[in-house]
Amino acid sequence: MILGVGVDIVSVNRLESILKYPRAHLLKIFSQEELDYCNKDSKSLAGRFAAKEAFYKALSGSLCKLNLKFYKCSFILLSKYINVINDIDNNIPYFKIDWTGLGDLLKVSLPKVNTHLSISHEKLYAVSVVIIESV
């Protein structure tokens, strides 16, 4: 059963300006692994940013649908528990999530779920769709 769906679109130009910030600021949103993989490619980082925003939306919807009371936190706080990684063999993006840390942050016992992620890039924009389903 689908518990939540999230969609987000990000301007690549927005990420180009963020890349000018100190690395410490970037590490509030992206993991070291994500920054290394993208290697300052604003289009790839925009896709990851959109994926994290879409996950945030899908997760919020999922928790509401399950009638779970949770601590509402900012996107920035949530970002450190979510990494967008690419499968080495097929170059397909997926989430690597610290579910324990995320549950502690939200002050809720998270159910077992599957996540599905799609990212697309165009010249000026990156878009992501996330689906969270029960196991």
Written overview of the protein:
The chain is an alpha+beta fold and 135 residues long. It has a single domain, classed as 4'-phosphopantetheinyl transferase domain (Ribosomal Protein L22, Chain A, Alpha-Beta Complex). It contains 6 helices and 5 strands; from the N terminus they run βαααααββαββ. 41% of the residues lie in helices and 29% in strands. A hairpin with a 3-residue loop joins strand 4 (113-121) and strand 5. The protein has a 3-stranded antiparallel beta sheet with strand order 1-5-4. The protein is globular.
CATH topology label:
Ribosomal Protein L22, Chain A
Biggest pleated-sheet summary: 3 strands, antiparallel
**Tally of discrete structural domains:** 1
Shape: globular
Going across the major beta sheet, what is the strand order? 1-5-4
- Calculate the mean pLDDT score and round it: 94
Strand residue content? 25-35%
N-C termini distance: 8 Å
Q: Briefly note the structural class of the backbone.
A: alpha+beta
The number of helical runs is 6
CATH superfamily: 4'-phosphopantetheinyl transferase domain
Helix-strand topology string:
EHHHHHEEHEE
CATH class: Alpha Beta
